[in-house]
Amino acid sequence: MKKSLLALAALTAFAGAASAQSSVTLFGIIDVNVRGVDNGNGGRTSVSTDGNSSSRLGFRGIEDLGGGLRAGFWIEGAFAADTGSALSTTTSCQPPVGTAPPVCTTTAAGGQTWQRRATVSLLGGFGEVRLGRDYTPTFWNHTVFDPFGTNGVGNQLNLMTQQGFANPNNMAAGTLVRANNTVGYFLPAMGGLYGQLMWTPSEGTVGNEYIGGRIGYAAGPFNVAFAYGETKHALGASSDDKLEAYNMGASWNLGFMTLMGQYHNYSVASRETENYLIGMTMPMGPGTLKASYAMTSLDSGLASLPSGDAQQLAVGYVYDLSKRTAIYAHYSIIDNDSGLRYTVVGSSNDGKTNGAGGFQSQGMELGIRHSF
User: Fold this and answer.
1) SS3 156
2) DSSP label of 41
3) What 8-state DSSP symbol labels residue 192?
4) Could you tell me how far CA 2 lies from the centroid of its own chain?
5) Quick check: 176 and 160 in contact, CB under 8 A?
6) Any idea where the domains of the chain sit in the sequence?
7) How far apart are CA 135 and CA 69, in angstroms?
């Protein structure tokens, strides 16, 4: 009997040691809202998702290999919380007709995929080597220094993707946010210094061959970062034109509020987009008030496509019910120069996109977000 008890105690101790050396975590976010959008040709109300955070389901894990070396994995997929369906999107564009801008549509495919992130890593005193599908270095400043975190109707990317450089004129580059087949390196902890490098081969996919990096410094109330990246064959397999992207962002925590700012430049061939943003977040009661002003200047470089400016003003409030649950209200309005068609998030999928250009697009959303 004593031997059995000793054996059981030893087995329990061994299991405890093993679990201390490795761990797997299930995590996710569910975000659903009621959203109304109007592009000057009649509004539409819908139950939508991702107003405050992107809905997701993921697994991540870490294993201690000894000697300061660790292995890790991270798989994370998006889903449409308003319908419960897995979300895998494909964007396609029709060429411009006459003086009309190109029309891009995004469609969702069924079946769960880990399109948000799917990586495996080795970590140690040297930093981290990470392989798989991941965010590109040139995306991080978009979301880190946006009071709305590139989500919802106040999203800074509203002025980048509708008629910017996501897919105009059938642009092949698909590296604005993420890239497939990446090989990445992240600096180890070095005071406030941080940074990463990334390279991706095309593997037969036009517009996925990318190289870029990001370097930043965060200490005390300050955070500043710069990023640069290039995507080869950005206009198709037969084109040698590359998409060049560089940007910088900064934030300053004043205690009673945090100020944010961004600058982005995307260019390919003779076309160029410049984007500026200033914003703030301010603790207010049990929640956070946030606001931003952004402007995009588009130089199409072509007589057949319009050039001009678009401006976005966004405000919102997030009320924290707990550490994991919040309710929120956001509003934004975009003012387009003649011929431009930037719209608030959700407009391209609601059947109410205004093809005329030069209109105002506005949206409001009320929602709830829960993380686990």
Assistant:
1) coil
2) S
3) T
4) 59
5) yes
6) 35-371
7) 24
State the Cα–Cα distance between residues 280 and 259, nearest whole angstrom.
Answer: 5
- The rounded distance, in Å, linking the Cα atoms of 167 and 177 is 13
Q: How far does CA 127 lie from the centroid of its chain?
A: 23
The tens digit of pLDDT for each residue in 160-183 reads 864 443 344 446 678 989 999 999
Give the 3-state secondary structure of residue 185: strand
Q: Which amino acid is at 279?
A: G
Contact predicate 68/125, CB 8 Å: yes
Regions of the chain with pLDDT less than 70 = 1-20, 87-112, 161-172, 304, 348-353
Say whether pTM exceeds 0.90.
no
Q: How far apart are CA 208 and CA 179, in angstroms?
A: 6
CATH code for the domain defined by 35-371: 2.40.160.10
Q: Give residue 230's pLDDT.
A: 96
The per-residue pLDDT for 91 is 44
Helix (H, G, I), strand (E, B) or coil at 311: strand
Structure tokens, 334: 């975009």
| Rounded Cα gap, residues 261 and 249, in angstroms | 6
End-to-end CA distance of the chain: 43
Q: Which residue has the tokens 């200033």?
A: 278
Closest CA to 296 of 138, 102, 152, 155: 155
Q: Mind listing the pLDDT tens digit for each residue in 54-90?
A: 999 999 999 999 999 999 999 999 999 999 887 655 4
DSSP-assigned beta bridge partners for residue 60: 25, 74
**Virtual CA dihedral for 230, 135, 116, 70, nearest 10 degrees?**
130
